Each structure stands twice: as C-alpha cells, then as structure tokens.
Amino acid sequence: MIIYPMLLVSVVCGIVYAADVCNVPPIFRQECGWGGISPEKCESRGCCFDSSIKGRTWCFEKSNSRCWVLPNVRLECGWAGISRKTCEARGCCFNSNTPGTKWCFKKK
C-alpha cells in the first residue's frame, strides 16, 4: 500500500480543523449571548466562549467558515436594513460587526 504523506496530512488536518467549531477569528464572531454571560450559560446555549481577547465578543456562535468573508470583498445578498433572519433565510451570511460594510452577503 502506498501512503501519500501530503494527502494524509491534509485529511488529518481537515478533520481536526472541522472538529474545532469554536476556532473563530474575532472579526467573524457573531454574538450569542450578552455582556457578563458566564461560560457555563454561554455553552449551555450551544455557543462558544473565549474571553482571551479583551474588547471582542466572548460568547459567540460556532463556526461557519463559508461566511468568513472579509468586509472589503463581500458581495451583496440583500439590502440596507435587512434582518439577520431574512438574510439567512435567503441562504446568505450575516455579519454586522463592521459598520459601513455589507452585512448580508454571499457565502464563499
């Protein structure tokens, strides 16, 4: 049997990465709680908790890497004032963390 090292590394890394749904860059974190929420309460809501970065969202939704699109390259998928619910119902991503950018946008 021939084992291709790079393929094996890719598969292993892909599995590890996919399993880590709380490894979300701070710019892409979507609020899932409120200020002062405890780690236990946050996680009981099915969310991730990481208080290591001051001034950023600590209780946030699990990753959806298809929505990790930098604000300057987002393609519009809604209209100004669209709600998260309506945007996501259209199959789009919603991120209102950066004022002055598209909040409802197409997935990668």
UniProtKB/TrEMBL annotation:
Signal peptide span per the entry?
1-18
One GO cellular component term, please give it: extracellular space
The family database entries (PROSITE patterns) matched by this protein are listed as: P_TREFOIL_2 (PS51448)
Task: Specify one Pfam family.
Answer: Trefoil
Q: List the disulfide bonds.
A: C22-C48, C32-C47, C42-C59, C67-C93, C77-C92, C87-C104
Q: Which residues form the P-type domain?
A: 20-63, 65-108
Coiled coil regions in record: none
Q: Which UniProt keywords apply?
A: Disulfide bond, Signal
Under the heading PANTHER family, the entry gives: INTESTINAL TREFOIL FACTOR-RELATED, TREFOIL FACTOR 2
For this entry, the protein name equals P-type domain-containing protein
